[in-house]
Amino acid sequence: MLGLVADLEPSEAFELVQRALAELRSGQVAQVPAVFRAGGRAHHTDADAEQTHLSITAPGVAPTHPDWLAWQVALTALSGGSASRLFTAVREERGLAYAVSASPVLLGGQGFLSAYAGSTPERAPRPWRSCFMSWPVCRRD
């Protein structure tokens, strides 16, 4: 699927895309395995920052696994927009973050969970402790 926003006639856009993608060939490509390294951390502080962005990645379910569809349904219920359980718990009920989400990530044929929260520096650790760290996949037991 390709989305294109341009001040072009459809035929001009089609020709532009054909030229840009002319070298691509169909077929299978060997997957590059993704290596999950538990405990990796990156932290950058800015004393003047008004926002803090928190992100965590954990192993998830691969698209070839029998539980893939159940995983997708669970993540949609958890983080499917402003009516989701995660958004309601973290933002609406507790006021801990202005943005919060969880989504599947595919890399090298493997599935991962990516969770995000945007908050203030003062409140930054609270979304993690109150919600994300309660998920078994995110704990470091």
Would you give an account of this structure?
The chain is of the alpha+beta class and about 140 residues long. The chain is about 25% helix and about 20% strand. The chain has 4 helices and 3 strands; from the N terminus they run H-E-H-H-E-E-H. The longest helix is centred in the middle third of the chain and has 12 residues. The radius of gyration is 20 Å and the shape is extended.
Distance between the termini: 41 Å
As a whole number of angstroms, the C-alpha radius of gyration is 20 Å
Q: What structural class results from the helix and strand content?
A: alpha+beta
| Subunit arrangement of the protein | single chain
The fraction of residues assigned to DSSP E strands is 15-25%
**What's the SSE pattern?**
HEHHEEH
Report strand order across the widest sheet: 1-3-2
Largest sheet: 3 strands, antiparallel
Name the shape in a single word.
extended
Low-confidence stretches: 137-141
